[in-house]
Each structure stands twice: as structure tokens, then as C-alpha cells.
């Protein structure tokens, strides 16, 4: 077996950052991922329950003839945004409150500025008010902490997001930990993660990417209880919370990481696979049990001279091979990615509901 190199395909915020070499004809990319559920459930998700029936019914036990069902993250994310729009309007009409999301941007990175603009646009599209603080690259950590503190105390702000990466002279964890747990819409606060890990405890928020993965399974009516699930990757942002969420859904969970022996054999036993390692096409069709359901979180650039930018995006799973074996699979792009901001918007609305005791 060829050696594997696992990388964390997400940063410690909602965005996942990929540094690519321009000499190879590639560039710097980032992919945002997100979260949902407005009614608190036993698995710690708070989400709008759609009155519509599930998008599809998929079985992880048997492989139907033909290609795998494509789990359309774009369609699900749009459905979620439409639901949020209705609920935000209802809140405004009922109690006069508009949910607010604050983003703190430090420095002048063009990619970070782009993602902040995209989040603002997404907020506007569903009626959520957006707040933004832009600080210079050479700002002190104390200045950033003052901005965090100000938003913590601002009753019109219900969610706070610190755009990463931060300048190297700042203590990232110190700043992230300063965000009030009740406004930690990224779900990264140690208390939220700790509550997620404990039976009988409920986190206020769940990290966006893994929550989006589980939401896709729910929206496609894919059973989790009693299934064998394999999570490839153990990052604090995706792998670890994804495994915890699957466990809360009564799956039997195995985590594969860079020190795991015989990962192919373990993966071949899985009914559900969630991969988040940032390794292009690492999981081949031969790794997959016929009829398995695949959620591919990875987003990796590979050189492609026929593409306008000189590269194309692929997942951790070899889609061409896996789609012939699996019963359902997320595409890259267009699978998990679009769920990110939808989940972030959902968490912001959930926070506003909780703070204002809105039913």
C-alpha cells in the first residue's frame, strides 16, 4: 500500500485554507463549510425541520443498479436558506428582532476579504443583519480582543466569527476562546466540543462542517442508527466532531488517521464513509463496500491544463470509481461545501431564538 499523508482539510474556523504553489499553475483556495437544525434533538443539532418529505430514500445495505445517487449539497443548502428566510421574517414580525452575525477580519488578505463578502451576501439573502470589523495586519491582539468583547456585549449580535488565518503574531486559540459560548456559531469553543462528547449533555452549537454532513444524510433519509461508519481524518474541526455526531446517532464509528494500519480493509466494512483529510483521490473504489454512502468533505486542487485556471477541484474520494460502487455520494464541488454557510446562517438564527426565547 502506498504511504498516506493526512492533512487537516479545514482551519480552525468555518473556512478551510489550501496553500497552493503558483509555479504549478495553481493558486490559493478556501472552502467554507457550515451547519443547521433549529429544533434541538438528541444528537445536539438545532435545525429547521422541513415540512416537505426527504429528498430521497437511500439504503446503505444494498447497491442499486447503475450509478450512485448524487447527494446534491447545492439543492439542500438552497432549501435550508429558504427555510431560514421564512423563520427570520417570522421572528422580525413577531418580536421585532433581526438575527445578527458579526465577522472580525484582520489584515488585507484578498481571499479572506472575499469569504467575508460572501458571508455578508448570504446573510443579506436570508434577512440576517451582518456586522463587520476590519483591522490592520499589524493590529495588536488586544485590539482584536476588544472587538470580540464589544460583540459579546452587543445585544444585536447573536453570532461571532473570527476570520482565519490570523496574523502570526496573534494567539489564535486565545482569541477564539474569547468569543462568548452563547455566540460561538462556529461551535469551536472547548465547552461546546466537550458537551458534544458527553452523553446527556447538549452543545449550544456544533461545528458547521460535520453538522452539514449529518444534515445531508438526514435530508436524503439515509439511516444511521446501527450502521458501521468510518470517518477518515481526526481534525478538531471535522473528523472528531463528525465521529461524535455519528455516535450520537447510534452508529458504530471507527476513525482512520495517519497511523491506522490497513485503512482499506477497515473502510471496506463501512456503510457510511465521511472523509476529511485533504488528500486528492486517496480513497479508491476498491476501498468501498458495495452500497455504501459517501460524504466527501475534501476539496483539493489537481493540475488540469484543460481547465481555465489550470486546475480542477476533486475530493478525497476518487469520484469516478466510487460512484460505480456506492449507493449515494456527494460530488466535489457541490456536495458538502454549499452546506457550510447555510449551517452558519442556521446557527446564527438558532442563537437569536435562544437569546430571545423565540419559539
UniProtKB/TrEMBL annotation:
Domain Tetrahydrofolate dehydrogenase/cyclohydrolase NAD(P)-binding per the UniProt entry, residue ranges: 207-354
Pathway(s) where this gene product acts: One-carbon metabolism; tetrahydrofolate interconversion
Gene3D superfamilies, per database record: Leucine Dehydrogenase, chain A, domain 1, NAD(P)-binding Rossmann-like Domain
Keywords: Hydrolase, Multifunctional enzyme, NADP, One-carbon metabolism, Oxidoreductase
Every Tetrahydrofolate dehydrogenase/cyclohydrolase catalytic domain range: 71-186
Organism: Camelina sativa (False flax)
Protein name: Bifunctional protein FolD 4, chloroplastic-like
InterPro entries: Aminoacid_DH-like_N_sf, NAD(P)-bd_dom_sf, THF_DH/CycHdrlase, THF_DH/CycHdrlase_cat_dom, THF_DH/CycHdrlase_CS, THF_DH/CycHdrlase_NAD-bd_dom
Lineage: Eukaryota, Viridiplantae, Streptophyta, Embryophyta, Tracheophyta
Domain of life: Eukaryota
